[in-house]
Amino acid sequence: MAVELIFFGKPQSFEVFSFNRENKFIEYNSEKRRVIDPHFFLENKDEGTIIRYRRDLINKKNYLLMYTYAQVFSGVRSGIVIGVGFSSKNEIEFSKENLYYLTTLLSSFKNNATKEHKFTEVFLSNHAIDTFKKNSNLIDFIKTKSNSNNKIDKRTQLFYLPSLEEQFNTLEKVNSNDIYITNNLSIFKNSLNQANLNQLNKKIYTVKSNSIVSYIEPQPDPVNPHKEKEVPAKTNAEKEIKTLRAINGHLEKELSDERGKNTYLERSLSKFKKLAMLAGSMAVFFMVLSVAFFFKDSWGNSKDNTKTDSENTIAGAQVAGEESDSIKTKVDSNTPLDYTNKLAVLQAKFDDLHSELTKDNLEKRIEILKEIKSLQENLGLDTDETFNLIKGLNKQLEDLNESTSNKDDSNSYQDDIIFNNAKIENTVKGYNHYLKKFPKGEHKKEAKLKIKELHEKKGSDISSDTVNIINVDENGDGDGDSEGKPYEGLETQTDDDSNGDSEGKPYEGLETQTDDDSNGNNGNN
């Protein structure tokens, strides 16, 4: 059957702790503490120890306890003890081995929790844990036995055993539910125990020839006439003083208990106040935060609604120019809540960026991920995933830059080749071929100028009704083509108007002049 080690004492208020084989730590409540709290006390450190066997008939548990004298942590009070014990659902044996284990455990606990018989701390829990760790193996050696079917006597019995170790096992025969045992008779008769001893009719038992008998104090020798006259018995006044002292000791004990309860309640109230203040502070903080976000959104919407179209255009340009700078802004908050809020904002901004493969998009997403990684490090979060994302996006950016560079170099090379061929050929057809191939090429203006010069040079040979006006689609979409006609991309326009006005402008870079004074004749170019 499971055995538990018990530790108890009263450094300020009475405390009881127990430990089982699984190292489970239990602090007894007030109801269970009353089962352990002793009714007989020691007046000083020289009186020794008291052993107690307690049967808890309600919870069906048995306790074998040993305690001794101690002093409170603060102040001076009588009736203070420190003790240890064993508990089990089974009967605990009255054996020399169990008595030895009790003595060993009490010595260890007292050395840990007191100095010169005075408690070193106001609470016992830490000392109980330390002592248990040093003596936890005792649980495996405590001797128990099956419960007897004998009827339990609900009286309290006091036993004086002069030879404690030899007579201890005889108490197996006792069926009382509360037994106090000592080898120092004066303990039961001291001033602290007088009231309780009187309630028991001053009856004390002992062991004689392995039998339980009432203890009878030795009688003095018969009166010898040759001896000096004995001192008269104590007066009634002295007896009353002794009784009053016993009552005073009992009252001091009750006062000590009440003070212990008051200390416990004050400690609980203090914890409750701290929790209430913390809860109130958190509520106010979140309320202020909510109001701040509300007014921030409202102010932003109001400001956006009052902007003019020109202001919106300017603001859009500023936002486009400053967007990368805002992403790079360093986090200057030093609280976990600020880090978490900024992390959520950056994550939302990253999600809003679509994943098109452009240089600008990739650079923005990389900067956001760097800020997210920094916040994750401040919060102690795992950054491996973010680091891998940054690495992947950097690789995509490098590939894109390399691809763009190769493409630009190739286009520039072809641009130069075709334009040089046109210059060598030096014909309108050759230059129009270049403009068709590279409508926005590096030599666009020069090609248009060359076409204009060639037209001016040949202008005298071209009749007014067959003048070819070059009109190259700026977007490269010209659809002129065929042999015997102007080169692909050119449009032919004749002066069919009697006024000589042309409908459609010549190609950019050409000038057309009409003779407003004649009907159908073109002016000189």
Describe the structure concisely for a colleague:
The chain is an alpha+beta fold and 525 residues long. It has helices spanning 30-36, 96-113, 125-135, 164-167, 186-189, 194-199, 236-305, 309-327, 336-352, 359-378, 384-425, 428-437, 444-458, and strands at residues 3-9, 15-19, 25-27, 49-56, 61-69, 81-88, 91-92, 114-115, 118-119, 144-145, 153-160, 176-182, 205-208, 211-214, 468-469, 491-492.
Number of strands: 16
Largest sheet: 8 strands, mixed
Portion of residues in beta strands equals: 5-15%
CA-CA gap between termini: 124 Å
How much helical structure, as a percent, in the residues?
40-55%
Shape: rod-shaped
Mean pLDDT: 78
Structural class: alpha+beta
Compute the number of helices. Answer: 13
Computed over alpha carbons, the radius of gyration is: 54 Å
Number of domains: 3
Spans of at least 5 consecutive residues with low confidence: 326-333, 460-525
Order of helices and strands: EEEHEEEEHEEHEEHEHHEEHHHHHHHEE
Kindly report the spatial arrangement of strands forming the biggest sheet.
3-2-1-6-5-4-12-11
Tell me what the structure shows.
It is built from 13 helices and 16 strands. With 525 residues, the chain is of the alpha+beta class. It has 3 domains: 3-217 and 240-246, no CATH class; 334-420; 426-525, no CATH class. The protein has an 8-stranded mixed beta sheet with strand order 3-2-1-6-5-4-12-11, with helices on both faces. Mean pLDDT is 78; it is low at 326-333 and 460-525.
